[in-house]
Amino acid sequence: MSIISHIQARPTLADAPNAEELAAIECPVDRARRVSAVARQYGTLPGYLAELRRAALIRARQAGHTISYLACEIGLSKGRISQLTRTDADDSAVLAEGVA
Predict the structure, then answer these.
(1) Quick one: which of 22, 20, 91 has its CA closest to 62?
(2) Which of 26, 41, 52, 59 has the smallest set of CB atoms within 10 Å of its CB?
(3) Alpha-carbon distance 28 to 56, whole Å?
(4) Taking the chain (100 residues) in consecutive chunks of 10 residues, what is each chunk's mean pLDDT?
(5) How many angstroms separate the most distant Cα atoms in the chain?
């Protein structure tokens, strides 16, 4: 299979689960895992889904899950989990809105 036919065969984000379906997943670890699977399957992650995954990972860390556990469960490196779960003042508004 040539690279061009491989790229053309890749499903589009129009086929992906919608944000409401993903946001409805109650467990933050399961939610982050599913959003990461979408990223792997479709080769990209739109901003709103990236933020959904990030908020889920922050919630999971707040619930006591370690970076090592999340890296193993989600399929990302520990460094990437650490980057995604760094918080600042702006994150409190995202988490308060119930995005996660």
Answers:
(1) 91
(2) 26
(3) 5
(4) 55 70 95 92 85 96 96 95 82 51
(5) 48
- Answering whether pTM is above 0.70, one says yes
Amino acid at 13: L
Rounded distance, CA 58 to CA 50, Å? 12
3-state secondary structure the chain: CCHHHHHHHCCCHHHCCCHHHHHCCCCHHHHHHHHHHHHHHHCCCCHHHHHHHHHHHHHHHHCCCCHHHHHHHHCCCHHHHHHHHCCCHHHHHHHHCCCC
